[in-house]
Amino acid sequence: MVKKLLHTRMRVNDIERTVKFYQDALELKVARRSVSPRGAQIVFLATPNSDEEIEICQLPNSPSVQVQPDLMHLAFEVENLAEFTRKLEAKGYKLSDGPTPTGSGSTIAFIDAPEGYEVELIQRAK
Predict the structure, then answer these.
(1) Class of 1-60 per CATH?
(2) pLDDT reading at 59 higher than 90
(3) E-strand spans in 40-106?
(4) CATH code 3.40.50.150 for 67-126
(5) Where exactly are the structural domains of the chain?
(6) What is the pLDDT of residues 105-120, one digit of tens each?
(7) CA atoms lying within 13 Å on the CB side of residue 124
(8) Could you give the count of Cα atoms lying within 13 Å of 42 in the half-sphere of its Cβ?
(9) At a CB cut-off of 8 Å and minimum separation 6, what does 20 contact?
(10) How far is Cα 27 from Cα 20, in angstroms, rounded to an integer?
């Protein structure tokens, strides 16, 4: 029986650019860095109020990552989407879609991370 989800891995072409995005835009913290026995650079990012981590991986001498549109995304809850968007824009990041009200009363928006991965921002209905 599975006990819990521990992490999600995303392979990237430029690990430092990707880590910088998650640190700057979403204020995630680096939990640890390592190099695998195969030589892959690995960075684990801690996620707020969760045990799950995001693993960013750059493999040496591997084909370039090409993320297909709408293949996958990470979703984060934010307290106030308008305020969060203003902070993102002040840092030079722009929404790629939204804000959009949903049928449940929540509001969602998206921002593009490096490599073509999407990040969904959700302000839940109150």
Answers:
(1) alpha beta
(2) yes
(3) 41-46, 53-58, 73-77, 95-101
(4) no
(5) 1-60, 67-126
(6) 999 999 999 888 999 9
(7) 5
(8) 15
(9) none
(10) 9
